[in-house]
Amino acid sequence: MTLPALPGQSPEALSLWLHEQGEPSFRAKQILEWVWKKKVVSFDAMTNLPAALREKLAASFRLSALTHSQTQGSADTTRKFLFKLHDGRYVESVLIPANPALYGEKSDRRTLCVSSQVGCAYGCKFCASGLAGFARNLDPAEIAGQVLAAEQIAGERVDSLVFMGMGEPLANFKNLMAAIALITGPETLHLGARHLTISTSGLVPQIRELADHPQQIRLAISFHGATDEVRDRIMPVNKKYPVAELMAALDDWNAGKKQKLTLEYILIQGVNDSLEQAGILARHARGIRAKVNLIPYNTVEGLEWKRPAISHCRAFQEVLKDAGVMATLRIEKGHDIDAACGQLRLKRETAEGLIQEA
Ligand code: SAH
Ligand code: SF4
Q: What domains does the chain contain, in order, with CATH numbers?
């Protein structure tokens, strides 16, 4: 049987465990500090704990939920980490340096792109994560543990997180929220909620639930089509939650939140990149006061979709700007390291026979 991972234990759960072991409650703070602040990689390194307690911990918990399996670096210093899970599955996280255009050349801020599931059940037609279907949800230790592991490997702090890796975070709502409690908790990772961005393909009931959450977590929507006609073709989720329903939920979201919403829009040649779509997208964005993030499509092995010419991407962006919408054109970082979500894990799992090739 696999032991539970220590970084998955909330401060309350850990205190309860200590109580059951007959240990004093102040040990919880010490253990949490070793795990989350000092980020030790062995129980023996927890030098202020009695040896007997260290042994009990080692017999009851794994110190990490993930094993580092591979790092890919890219020319722009984006790094992608592949992690092996206890059941042999893989997930990946991408460490992205600050965008100098946004933060200035000297900024040393870093964002980690975190996965929430192994695979994804939503089957968007352009996405590597959806390609091989859904395997399982990540548990809270596997989600929050990606941040710990990335900081350990890189020897650098992570300043912000985007839930834009593999999986649909809002389809794993309970574990996601438990992971966020660990990530933002003062005794655990202690990152500010406003430095977290959840990206969703548009799960309306969960968006509404998240809107009621007291923390100021940011939300990004994978929009990728301004009309039901276009969105239906590439994102099956739109059949369940069509554009009008999604917009109504986002309008309500704004009522309780200070931060601007982001509409993510991948530009795919001949699919969603007409200037007519740009005009309709502009109207939606204005309606919910959202900024738009345009991303030229990142080619996925085995899929026929292509990115439009950069000049066309700029023309699409101009339509938005002319309509008074804040629109950035993101030239993907890490294009040379399989950076689009799910690609590295897909290669490894296919090679190891976990995924049958179609
Ligand atoms: N399931 C969530 C979060 C993970 S996907 C969601 O869909 O929002 C993170 C982002 O990467 C999404 O905006 C997704 O549409 C985008 N993406 C997927 N495949 C891509 C590709 N090949 N090129 C560029 N972006 C891609
Ligand atoms: Fe899943 Fe998001 Fe990829 Fe769609 S874009 S298949 S929801 S990970």
A: 6-60 (1.10.150.530), 67-351 (3.20.20.70)
